[in-house]
Structures are given as C-alpha cells and as structure tokens.
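Practice problem: Metal-dependent hydrolase, endonuclease/exonuclease/phosphatase family
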Amino acid sequence: MKKTLTSLLCAAVSLTLLSLACGEGSPPQVPQPLEDGGVLWTECSPEGAREDCSQGESCIFVASHDRHLCVRACDSQTACEHPDAVCCPSSGEEAEGGHCVPSNACVPTDAGVDGGSNEETDGGALEDGGTSTDDGGTQEEDAGVDPEPDAGTDPEPDAGVDPEPDAGTEPDAGTDAGTDAGTDAGTDAGTDGGTDAGHTPIRVMASNLSSGNYQSYDPGHGIRLIKGVDPDIVLMQEFNYGSNSAADIRSLVDQIAPGFHYSRETGAQIPNGIISRWPIIQFGQWPDPQVSNRDFAWARIDIPGPRDLWAVSVHLLTSSSSNRNAEAQAIVNQVRSQIPEDDYLVIGGDLNTDSFSESCFATFRQVVTTAGPHPADHNGNTGTNRNRNKPYDQVLVDQDLRQYQQATVIGSSTFPNGLVLDSRTYRPLSEIAPVQSGDSSSSNMQHMGVVKDFLVPNF
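Answer key — structure tokens:
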C-alpha cells in the first residue's frame, strides 16, 4: 500500500531544505522537527560516510546548512524515483552529478525523488509499577500496584497514532531528550540491512531475554544474545534497563544496535516494545484485558518498498491457557480493525504456551500463520523455555510475509526454519560474538530468543 500521507509530506518538506544546493529559493534554515514528528536530514562526516549514510546516498557539504548531509545521488543514468521531484545538478567542490530535490527547485535533468525518510519520534521513561494477575515464574512477580494501569495507552486506538509523537524529538544523531512520549525512533544506523535494487532481507527476533532479579536487561546477558544475531527488528518483552529513564533506554538500544529506532509502551511494570532498523512511523499500545502491568505494544515500520510492516510485541500470561486465548482474541480484534490487509504483519514475543495445541494458536491463525516447521537450535530442538520443552516464544507472520521466509544463515550455520538461540548449544560461539556460553542459563533467564529471516521485494 502507499505510505502514510504524513510520511510523504515529511519527505517533501525535508527535500525542499536542499533546494539551495541548486541555486534557487531563499536560504533555508537549519531543519527543525515538524509538529507531527518530523523528518531530518542525516548529518554525516566525510570520514564516516559509509557508516552514516544509507546505500545510494552521498555525504556532501551543504552550504545552507553549514554541515555535511546524506543525500541521494542521481544523474542522467541514475534517476530519482518519485514523479514530483527531479535530479538537480549539484554545486560545490565536493558534489558531483546531481541530487534528488523537489521538481520546482531547479531545472530538471530527470524526474524523481528519494522516497525514503528518517522520521523520528521520541520515547520516554517508564512509569514503574503495576499489579500482575500472572502467577507463574519469578519473572512474573509483582513489583507494586500501578495507580494508573492505563497510563500511556493511546486514547484513540483506532487512530493508530500516539497523541504526542514529537515530544522530546532530538534533531541530533539519536540522543534522547528524556521526555515521556513512549517511543524513541532514534536515528538510522546508516545501513539498509543489505537492501539491493530488488529485495530487502529482514531478520526478526522475539526477545524476552531479561535476566537478574529485576526483569531487566541490566546484567547484559540478553544484550549480548540480541547483538550476536544482528536482527533488523526486535520484539522486546520486559523492556527495562537502568532507571528506565529515556537516556537509559536509549543506551540499551544503542548497545544492541547503535542508532536504531524504538518504541516502548508506557505505564507498565514490564513493558513491551519494538526496536527497528527502519523508521517507526506510527506506534501505540492495545490494552491487555487479562493483566494490568503491561499491554500489547505495536509499531508501524517503514521498511523499503510500497508496503509497511506492522509489528506487535506481546507477553501473554502464564496463569492459564484460557487467559492466553482471551489475550490472543483481543489482539486479533485489534489487528482486524486497524491494520490494512495489504500490509505485512508480525506478532511475536513471549506467549508462555505449553504446546502448539493450545487454543490461542488457533485464534492467532485468523491473522497469522502458526503451522510448522518451527525454528530450532543446532540439535533440532524447537522448545524455547529454559528447560527447552515448551514453545514459549514465537515469531508469527501473516501469509503475505510468510511466503518470503528464507533460511536463517549465521556464519557457516544454516537454520532452514529459523533459529532458537541457546548459547548452551550454539557452536561455534564465535559466529554469534559477543555471546558467552552461559548467557542462556544466567540467573532468571527463562526464555530463548527466536529468529526468522525474510527476503521481501521492494516493489
């Protein structure tokens, strides 16, 4: 489907900021965040251009901004893509050929505009607390009574947009101002996940990998496990770190993947969230009808190509299969009412399911595929709990995305149906550095990470 109107308008405004490079118009000001979250050009340095800029972009000095910026290059042989802009000849010693700018900015050499944007929303600190009706396991213990269990829930769930998406947005390279908007999209890491002209590889990981005594990623075991498999999108559970300030959460994300975007639910004791290589253009949370210390976090991700990817990070109860089925039905109802059928969908995280025969899988089957074969470790074991005998954790996608699933390949290891990551069985560990052999058996580590890979067309 077409991208959201907000994204297209933001892209057009951002491109206009470069019109001075073509010698026309009044000098633009240094870009500031827009009211809806904004799009900012990515600042770069000539020495680190390969890390700062995405594939197909150049790091050039733009005099009107008095800085180096990443812009998409074009020439008579390599045109822009969008019909409302042109390939404008560049000026300056460091610029060669041309760059994509709005069509009224200069005399065109060809038509087009770069459709991508680095839209940023900002995230905030968690308000701790919450009483859980979950009674299973040390990771599910209560940490207090939540005086406002619905805090942070989007008051307009059908709109699908956070009411304050730009609160605290920072125009610099991914630093967080520390406000509580519930989401930080950071800045792009300067890579495109291997995107080529035709397809984009996307690695999705389910991660309830907190450890230690506080359902937190502080001890570092989970950070290493995620970092070791280099995912593009992470469905996070128990998304706690440090004091849960915005700066601490930004630090956690940057330890996993510097500059990645993220969204994280507010008003939760053990919040869910999403980390993404690509911009998060909408986000929010859907109420969990069975528990008060967390909701279901969702994000709409602007992956390359005409379709968006909707990611839903969930953490179902341990208390009973009937409660889990009720939670699954609540998610299905939200998906059907809010997510366009022609976009991609992934639902994943900690389902706490005892077997694949549980009713919640049949319920989820209304919107995603749940049939095997399922991800496994080197030994072919599909269990994801600590004892490796229950399918707690899942990455479930709709049929549109499932058709593009491919084997997960890490180093010399190939996992045809995806990977269950257990540091106790993975060999050689050097393939997933910095993972250590004891990470998956660390104190209160009750889950394994689950990874699936997809090769999605850009058309």
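Discussion: The helical segments are 5-16, 49-52, 221-229, 246-256, 321-338, 359-364, 399-402. Students who identified this feature from the tokens alone can consider the problem solved.
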